[in-house]
Specification:
Distance between the termini: 11 Å
Shape: globular
CATH class of the largest domain: Alpha Beta
Strand content: 25-35%
CATH superfamily of the largest domain: Medium-chain alcohol dehydrogenases, catalytic domain
Number of helices: 10
CATH topology of the largest domain: Quinone Oxidoreductase, Chain A, domain 1
Structural class: alpha/beta
Helix content: 10-25%
Number of strands: 20
Radius of gyration: 20 Å
CATH architecture of the largest domain: Alpha-Beta Complex
């Protein structure tokens, strides 16, 4: 089969790879669609992010959906022809964090398309994949394969919302409205947020945020004082989801966040310098949100029941053989949110 393999920054090749043997408790699936994620873009554009570097050829990708082709021994509940979304997360299940229910902090995590460990964990941008049956989740007939490929980033958003705690009736600010920020809008609305304001520096992303449920969208590049109306009486928002990874976005929202407001940092960028005095004086609760675990099953269930709509976030679908153009489009935030690769 063919796969998309990154060798170095800008060096993405289509190469033939072997299909792994099908073992007990596993499924073989034909990959239908794969979504290009921000981490895939970092590998393609820069050869990695932070201290994580591509040091050996690695299949990219971790947002996929497809069709079951074969079922291994001791697998129940799946049959050839079933359409599935596949979680890229493979925690060990044995370490102390897995035993505490913190599988996203597994000490021996294997996550598709990740150079965080060596040998690298090969990814899912391939025509066929063999996975553990526990990673596969059936898609309803009403859910397209393209929507199924968004189950992974939706899981990230659901985990961020879970980290915030109850949102029923809360006023929410989302800074950074790329795919994850827009999906946080969807997840926060589903969790009962009464008002959601989204900020970004690009109009395309903000229009997408409005399409998926934001009440208000503010271009802080065009309107640097756009949050000023929310700063009266020590702030208005109960919860801030920071999805840009930008220090200016995070700190710029502090005045609009009420005392004892909750900050959920989702976006990853460089290291930040924060005004600790403001955090102390307003008694902010600063929380991180990293990946997900049980939220993947929840994401698929929400999609299957039609309780969330991710279709407005799919900007384009291109053949995997045209990966260079697909990655260039995915990097252009003026015209793309989520770009999918078609592996048929």
């Amino acid at each position: 089969m063919q796969a998309l393999i990154i060798h170095a920054a800008g060096d993405l090749r289509i190469e033939d790879v072997e299909t792994p043997p099908l073992g007990p408790g596993q499924l073989q699936a034909r990959v239908r669609f794969g979504g290009i994620c921000g981490s895939d873009l970092h590998y393609y554009q820069h050869g990695g992010f932070g201290t994580v570097r591509v040091r050996e050829p690695m299949v990219l990708g971790h947002e996929i959906a497809g069709t079951v082709e074969a079922v291994g021994a001791h697998v129940a509940g799946f049959a050839p022809g079933d359409r599935v979304a596949i979680s890229p997360s493979r925690p060990c299940g044995h370490c102390r964090y897995c035993q505490q229910g913190l599988q996203n902090h597994c000490l021996d995590m294997r996550y598709y398309g990740s150079a965080m460990r060596t040998p690298h964990v090969q990814g899912a941008f391939r025509q066929r994949i063999v996975c553990e049956a526990a990673q596969a989740h059936k898609l309803a007939a009403s859910v397209s394969d393209a929507e199924g490929a968004l189950a992974e980033p939706l899981s990230v958003a659901l985990h961020a919302v879970q980290r915030a705690g109850p949102l029923l009736g809360r006023r929410v600010l989302v800074t950074g409205c790329g795919p994850i920020g827009a999906l946080i809008v969807i997840a926060a609305r589903r969790a009962g947020a009464a008002h959601i304001t989204a900020t970004d520096v690009g109009d395309f992303a903000l229009r997408a945020a409005l399409k998926v449920g934001a009440d208000e969208a503010i271009n802080v590049a065009a309107r640097p004082d756009g949050l000023a109306p929310y700063t009266a009486d020590k702030g208005s928002f109960d919860v801030l989801f920071e999805a840009s990874g930008n220090q200016r976005a995070l700190v710029g929202a502090f005045d609009a966040l009420r005392p004892r407001g909750i900050i959920v940092q989702v976006g990853l960028g460089g290291e930040m310098t924060l005004p600790v005095n403001a955090i102390v004086a307003k008694e902010f609760d600063l929380r991180g949100a990293f990946r997900f675990h049980e939220e993947f099953a929840v994401a698929v269930e929400l999609l299957n029941k039609g309780l969330v709509d991710v279709k407005p976030l799919v900007s384009a679908t291109l053949p995997y053989r045209d990966a260079g153009r697909a990655f260039a489009l995915a990097a252009d935030r003026s015209q793309a949110m989520k770009v999918l690769l078609d592996f048929e």
